[in-house]
Structure formats: C-alpha cells, structure tokens
Amino acid sequence: MAHAPYGPPEWPPSRNRYGRAAVYPPTTPPPWPVPEPEAPSRRRTPARHRSAEWPTVRDRRQVQVATREDKSRWHWLLIVPIALPLMPFLYNRIDPTLLGLPFFYWCQLGFAFLASGVIAFVHHKVR
Amino acid sequence: MSTQLAVFLAVFGSVTLMGFAAARWRRPDSIHSLEEWGLGGRAFGNWVTFFLLSGDVYTAYTFVAVPTLVYGMGATGFFPVPFLVIVYPMLFVVLARFWSVCHVHGFVTPAEFVRARFGSPGLGTVVAVLGIVATMPYIALQLIGMEAVFEVMGLPKGWPLTLAFVVLALYTFNSGLRGPALVSIVKDALILWAVLAVLMIVAMTPGQWETIFKIAEDRYAVTPRTDDGLLLPVQSQLNYVTLALGSAVALFLYPHTLTGVLAARNRGTLRRNLAVLPVYTLTLGVLMLVGFAALYDGTQPIGGNANTVVPQWFNENAPAWCAGLAFAAIGVGAMVPAAIMSIAAANLFTRDIYRVYLRPRATAKEETYVSKSVSLTVKFGALLILLLLNTQFAIDLQLIGGVLIMQTLPAVALGLYTNWFHRWALGLGVGAGLVVGLFMLWQVPKLGGTDGRQVVREHFGGSAWPLNNLGLDSDATIYVGIVALAVNLLVAAALTPLLRAADVRDGRDDTREHDYVADEGDPTVRRMTEILDGEPVPTSFFTPVSRPTRFENASDDDPSRRAYPRL
Fold first, then answer.
1. Is residue A43 in a domain?
2. Which ipTM was obtained for this model?
3. Residues 182-211 of B with CB under 8 A from A
4. Which CATH number is B16-412 given?
5. Residue B154: which pLDDT band, with cuts at 50, 70 and 90?
6. B231 CB near a chain A CB, below 8 Å?
7. Total domain count for chain A?
8. A-chain residues within 8 Å CB-CB of B517?
C-alpha cells in the first residue's frame, strides 16, 4: 500500500490492511485541531422539491448576498459630510462670524467644501 | 424698451439659436432613437455633464423662491444649502451602479430598471406614473420663476410666457437632450455673473455683510412671528433637518436627474462631477443671501407676488444691463430644467407605458416620435396648469409631487443594492406611503397673518406636519415625506418575509451583479464605440456584434468588424 511520502499521516486511514474501506465516520478525534462545523444559516432557504436535486423554477431567483464587486470600506467615510449638515446644534449660532456672516451661514457653506473634498478622496481611493 | 428687456431679449434670442443648432452638435447618423434624442447619445464628457447636471439640479425656481423664503423667514429658508450638500455623497454611492446597469441593459428610465430587477411590469408602471405626476408640477414651477422676471420687467401675464415656452418646446422637440446641454453652458455663465454682481454690490454697501445681517436681525426681532430670525428656533430644527434629508432623497429619484446622469459617458465622468458639484451650491448660497440684502435695501415685492423679490432687488440695485443679465440667468435657468424634465417624463411614458401596454413592438423611430410628442404635451400641460389654475395650485402640486416621488426609494435606490424585497411588498409599501403621506399633507393647515399663526386654509397648506397632531405638547413640525417614506420602508420590510413564507411567487431578476459595475469598454456595455463621432474606434477590447445571417451581409463599414483581422 502506497503512502504519501510527505505531509502528516493520513487520518482517518482510508483503508484497512486488507484494502477495504475503513470505518466511517471515524470514531477517534483527529490528532490535529479541527475547525468547528459551520452553524446552519438562519436565512430561510427557498422551498425545493424534497426528492429533486435541481432547484425548481421558483428558486431560480436567488437573493444576492453582500458580495458586491464595488464594495469598499472607504465608502463609509461619506457618512461624515452627510451627517454633519444634519446636526443643527453644531452650527446654530452667530459667533464666530466670518466677513460679517454669522457662523450658521458660513459653516453650512463650508460643508460644501468638506463634501467635495471627501468625495474626491473616496473617488481616488476606490477607483 | 428698457435696457433690461433689450439685454434679456438678446440673450434669449441667442440661446434659442443655440438650442436649434444643438441638433447638429456631434451629429449622430440618426437622431431618431431614444438614446440619441432622449440621452444625447449617452456620450457627454466631464464638462458637458457638469453643466447639464448643474442646470438640472439648480433650477430657476430655486434661485427665485428660496431667497424669497429667506427674505420672509431667515434661517429656516436656508435648508437648500445642507440639502444640496448631503445629496452628493448619497448620489456618489448609488449613481455609478445605476449608470452601469442602465447601460448594460439599455434602460432609459428608472422604471425600466425596476421592471427588470423585480420582474414586475406593474411595479415599473407605478414608478413611471409617480415620476410623470411628480415632474409635471415641477415644470410649472420653472414657469413661475420666469413669470416673476417678466413681472418685474413690466410684461403682461400670459403671452410672453407662452411665447417663451413655445420656443423651448420647439427646440426640445428638434434637438432633444443636446439642446438643454448646450444651453446650460450659457445658463451657468449667466448665473456666475449674477453671483459676482451680488458680491460686488454688497462689497460696495457701507458696512458690507455685517450691517446687512444687523439690519435683518432687527427686522426679524420686530415682527410678531416667533419662527423667524437669523438662527433656527428650537421648534424648527426637526423640520429643517428632515426637509433637507427628504429633499436630498427626492432629488435622486426625480426622473430628470437620472436622465442627466444617464447621458454621461462613463462612470468616472459621473463620479468626478459629483465631487465638484457641491461647490456649485455656493452660488445658490450667495443668491440666498440676497434675501437679507433685500431686507437691508427695503425691497418690496411687486404686485403681491412674493417671488419677485430677487429680480426686483437686481432691478433696483444693479445697473440696468447687469439686471438684464440677471433676468436672463433666471429665464434661461428655467428653460434648461424644464426641457430636461419634459424629456424625462416623455421617456417614462414611451418606455414604460406606451411600449409596455400599447405597442410592445414599437420601432426606435416610433418611440422617438412618441417621446417628442409627449414632451410637447407635458410642457403645455404645465403651462395650462399655471395659466388656467393659479400659481398656488402649482406650488401645492409640487409639494405633493415631492412626497410621491420619495416613495419610489425602496424600489429604485435600494433595488440597486439588493433584490431582497418582494415585488408585492414593494408595491404595497408604496401604497401605504402614499396614503399616509397624502393624509398628513391634507392635515397640514396653511398659516398666515402677521404672526404666522392664523389659519388661512384648512388643508394642503404645506409639508411641515405639526407634531401636536400626535398629542405631543410641542410646536415642532416634521417633513411629511420622511414619515411617509419610513412607513413605506417598514411595510416593505415587514411584508417581504411574510410573502416569502406564504410562497407568493417572486419576480425574476434579469440583472446580474456584474452589470452594476460595468463601465465604458466593458464588453457588456452596448453601443459605446459607435456613437462618438470623430473618435477612433478602440481596437483594444472586444466589441460584441450581432451575428450576420450571411457572411456577405456584413459590411465593411461596421467598425466593430475591423477590431479583428478577417480570417
């Protein structure tokens, strides 16, 4: 019986010394760490015919999972220019004024530059 | 004839010529397809896209009505600035995906996308109808902006407006989206000039902005109203924030914005433009400050029409020729979005009602003809709304229109990211949102009088819904659209698992994930090489061609055949 010359020994032994299939599933735990089996998904799987191997017509449409090709963590940065103008308590004041403009006005106009800068940065990073 | 009118007419005349000449700009082989007439061949580069989008978003009505609001209320009227800042980061995330999927599948309208994504022609029709209904009063609002200018120039109501709109209708009919694209360049130059004029005039007033704000503050302190002032009163803050957020959401969903977007040449063009456009909000900001300057100069609106404050301020404080240019900026600024809106509404009708229900096998030429005719109908419908009914009616309709169009968010915007929603859940969500939104709008009374607390009209008086309808003891108000949208989302999200559990059939999704990231040059994107005149056909990538029935039929003129050597 040929053994693989390299790597860890085959476990569980696929064949016994007579060349027959070994006991399956193996009764002893393997000597190396084994990953936990994956918990069954909580997402409801679409109904299928119990006996059929192929999905029925109804399940042909599959809900897309989050494997978008244009996914990027940098997009989260865009929340900043969206959230800041929506918090009036930050800028609802007169002082400090700029060229005579109260803070309320020049600050909100300043957010335009912030948005422009952040979008340009994200565009550069994501491209 | 006054100088103002002469300058206005000169600019208007040259713009009209440009609009007609635009049909020859980058002339395609045939303008008789919806992609050429309705989307300018989907080939606009960085600059043209910038002008088109800015002409689309910053409308004449914004330039006229918003400073009026600031003039009357102060800080509360400043909400378009945060609205037009937060909208661009939002658009940046979704628009590139929308562009890609529409190019791969040849969609011209958002309703077509919804139909393909959720496998539901009915849902597509709902989106199309909501789009058309919301767009019509928006066109009427552009007319209101123009009307204010005419009133200040002393023209009578009626025929000048009709004449201007006949001109607009004709060149849109003739040139399609190329017309407003070319004219919007002039519009932006004029607006920029108006902004510079404001800054120079204010720089020449003694004390400059500081004095202007001081006077305005004193004026607001004198009035018996409690909701005006240089800062937001506590009870207005919720409405300010929700109005900005809601307007931003609605802007993305309006069909005319999406038409402008689809005309861009590639994803990069679009994204670069979205990075630059927030800065354009500064021009709007400066023009809004004219509201305060008008308080300082004691400008009074003409003939009881509050919208004449801005034109009248220019009339009184700028040299005559400069005021003429500012009037032209507003006039031309009304033509550009009105044209794009009518094109967008016409495309919705053609692609999502005519072709789905009336003539499924319509040819490209027939489609274009239908679209052109509908664009005329839509424009004259808007004109009739304004002339036969009254101005206030158009404003109320537009208010309702904003709430209506927001209800398409789950299908159009979230649909770009997931097809998790069930088509029936989406439809019922839209229904629930509409019912709640319309009921709340019906509940809002119109307030008036000197202290702003007398009830002028019982119903449909605005979009700020008082929270004390819920029994809360507060003066705060909230924007109706946001509440209606929340109801819509809740219903759609709650019903989707229920409908799946009940095994109600899902629609079939005709799009793939890769469609949402395709770009110019990607083999799945159709018709990108042939449409740009004068540009060499790139040979570096594979261009899909339709299979010829016989080898002899394949002509040597077909550029895609030259991409590979003959075998």
1. no
2. 0.82
3. 207-211
4. 1.20.1730.10
5. confident
6. yes
7. 1
8. 68-70
